[in-house]
Amino acid sequence: MARAGLTAERVTLAGAELADEVGLDQVTMSQVARRLGVKDASLYTHVRGLEDLRGRIALLAADEKTIGIAEATSGRAGKDALVAFADAWREYAHKHPGRYMATQTPVQIDPELAAKAAGPRRAVELTYGVLRGYGLTEPDLTDAVRLLRSTFHGFVALEAAGGFAHERSPQQSWVRALDALHTLLEHWPPPQEGDSA
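Now predict its structure.
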């Protein structure tokens, strides 16, 4: 019988908190069970295993990150929206490093859960919304989405790994990188001959 009060949501949150503390790849079912004060077997009533738990953490994190980005970008356009979007992304990565990694790591997600999850879909909508403010259309929209994701994730991953040893502060570089992205998006290169969606 399941322990009273134990739910898939509580197990997921415990796993997410642990991921932020020790790193997503260090989370085990035994550690989550200890955190909740239950036996390992109790967890399997609520999640199928570690891969399922990681998928649930990824969906939780996608929802949280998307809500933060939506709040930050609401009513903004152009450079203001881009900067608010990027800052909210980076802030989430700093505040919740384990959860953030779950959103960037391929994991198996229960298709039924994924179908109900609004976070990933909303994240795409928000990103495309910011970029449409620059007048981009396909296939440039997709290319620009990939550029933003690569830039934001690359920066926060290097920052988290201590990869910025130069005396210039990462914050100063971040601000300049966003200035450069804004300039690029305003002057997006025309498609090359034969380019198609």
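Residues 48 and 190 are 48 Å apart (CA to CA).
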